[in-house]
């Protein structure tokens, strides 16, 4: 009787999971160097000042959408100015409430990370504990619940999240290489089981920056890209890649393994250098036609004729806005600094979304 009940329960759960997966509405595809959503080119038919926009995936770095701090000695740093308390659920809920505003301005993608990013913008040390994984690579339920809310909303809005698995300064929260591999398998399996078809995977943020585990460093990170790409469910797999630090040209091993290539514009103050990076990336040994994305760049000048954003566009590369709260700025500034105001309230945010809407024509 017990076995029969277990079988019935398993069947019900399988049907429920299948039904849930069937409700997903957004499917991302890559054909050559272009992105498609639900069979249509992104920004279909759109050109801006003679530059082709269709097929691009314009994005913003929103990595703290599921942030929490498990270190009681540092968690008080992230208190909201009104309540004087940190609240991870509030953070995620406010993220979700603003997603439609971003989408209406033409934002199709955002980077969100299982281990966040520096909640100070840039940090020398990271004593806080922000990781969606237990030390053995198993998944933390609170993080996954918050992530699922965001991914469900993105699916309904027709958005394509770039989900980062690891962040330097937090990767050491995993015990060893076996735990890292386990985390990759667990995350990839979770996304596939949930039926998401709109998620791109960034193995780790800036693989050439101080990671503890060898498999997350440039020489071997392609092994994890290959691992993600090898996993399937019902004939579907995830697209995967990884990113490099500002100004760095990707190595051949990553270029060959990746479905799309992520590069960063941090430290690149001359727009012409952005175009040069794109050109050099296309010249790396093993490169074949595939999308090139900047998913992190902390240069703005959106009111100028030439800036890093427009330079990337002219080179037919997608671009991503990286905004953090700078010294003496108010709460409304920055999408990476915790606590985050996820609205479009600061002058810098308004300028970015205004230019984005001009380039894309909005929703």
Notes on the protein architecture:
With 363 residues, the chain is α/β, with parallel strands linked by helices. 33% of the residues lie in helices and 14% in strands. The chain contains 9 helices and 13 strands. The protein has helices at 2-22, 88-104, 141-157, 177-194, 222-230, 252-257, 271-281, 308-314, 347-360, and strands at residues 28-31, 34-37, 40-41, 47-48, 51-52, 59-61, 109-113, 160-167, 200-205, 239-241, 261-264, 292-296, 320-321. The protein has a 6-stranded parallel β-sheet with strand order 10-9-8-7-6-13. A 3-stranded antiparallel β-sheet has the order 1-2-3, with no helix packed on it. Strands 4-5 form a two-stranded antiparallel sheet. α2 (88-104) links the parallel β6 and β7 (109-113). α2 packs parallel to α3 and α7 (271-281) runs parallel beside α8 (308-314). Mean pLDDT is 94; it is low at 1-19.
Main attributes?
363 residues; alpha/beta; 13 strands; disordered N terminus
Contiguous low-pLDDT stretches (5 residues minimum) are 1-19
Strand fraction equals 5-15%
Radius of gyration: 20 Å
Helix content: 25-40%
Distance between the termini: 55 Å
Write the layout of secondary structure elements.
Elements (H helix, E strand, L loop, with lengths): L1 H21 L5 E4 L2 E4 L2 E2 L5 E2 L2 E2 L6 E3 L26 H17 L4 E5 L27 H17 L2 E8 L9 H18 L5 E6 L16 H9 L8 E3 L10 H6 L3 E4 L6 H11 L10 E5 L11 H7 L5 E2 L25 H14 L3
Parallel strand pairs: 6-7, 6-13, 7-8, 8-9, 9-10, 11-12
Antiparallel strand pairs: 1-2, 2-3, 4-5
Helix pairs in contact: 2-3, 7-8
């Amino acid at each position: 009787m017990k076995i029969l009940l277990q079988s019935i329960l398993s069947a019900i759960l399988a049907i429920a999971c299948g039904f849930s997966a069937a409700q997903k509405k957004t499917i991302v595809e890559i054909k050559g160097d272009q992105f498609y959503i639900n069979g249509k080119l992104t920004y279909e038919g759109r050109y801006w000042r003679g530059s082709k926009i269709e097929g691009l995936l314009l994005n913003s770095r929103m990595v703290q959408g599921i942030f929490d701090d498990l270190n009681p000695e540092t968690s008080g740093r992230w208190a909201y100015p009104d309540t004087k308390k940190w609240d991870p659920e509030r953070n995620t809920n406010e993220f979700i409430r603003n997603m439609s505003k971003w989408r209406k301005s033409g934002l199709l993608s955002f980077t969100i990370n299982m281990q966040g990013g520096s909640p100070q913008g840039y940090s020398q040390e990271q004593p806080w504990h922000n990781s969606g994984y237990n030390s053995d690579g198993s998944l933390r339920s609170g993080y996954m619940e918050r992530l699922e809310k965001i991914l469900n909303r993105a699916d309904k809005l027709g958005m394509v999240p770039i989900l980062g698995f690891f962040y330097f300064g937090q990767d050491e929260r995993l015990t060893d290489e076996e735990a890292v591999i386990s985390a990759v398998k667990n995350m990839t399996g979770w996304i596939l089981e949930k039926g998401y078809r709109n998620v791109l995977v960034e193995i780790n943020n800036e693989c050439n920056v101080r990671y503890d585990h060898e498999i997350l460093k440039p020489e071997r990170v392609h092994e994890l890209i290959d691992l993600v790409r090898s996993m399937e469910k019902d004939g579907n797999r995830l697209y995967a890649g990884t990113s490099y630090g500002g100004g760095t040209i990707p190595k051949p091993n990553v270029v060959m393994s990746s479905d799309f290539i992520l590069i960063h514009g941090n430290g690149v103050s001359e727009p012409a250098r952005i175009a040069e990076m794109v050109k050099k990336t296309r010249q790396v040994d093993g490169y074949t036609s595939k999308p090139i994305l900047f998913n992190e760049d902390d240069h703005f000048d959106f009111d100028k004729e030439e800036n890093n954003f427009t330079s990337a566009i002219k080179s037919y590369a997608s671009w991503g806005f990286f905004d953090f709260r700078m010294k003496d700025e108010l709460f409304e500034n920055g999408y990476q600094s915790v606590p985050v105001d996820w609205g479009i309230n600061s002058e810098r945010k308004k300028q970015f979304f205004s230019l984005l809407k001009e380039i894309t024509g909005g929703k």
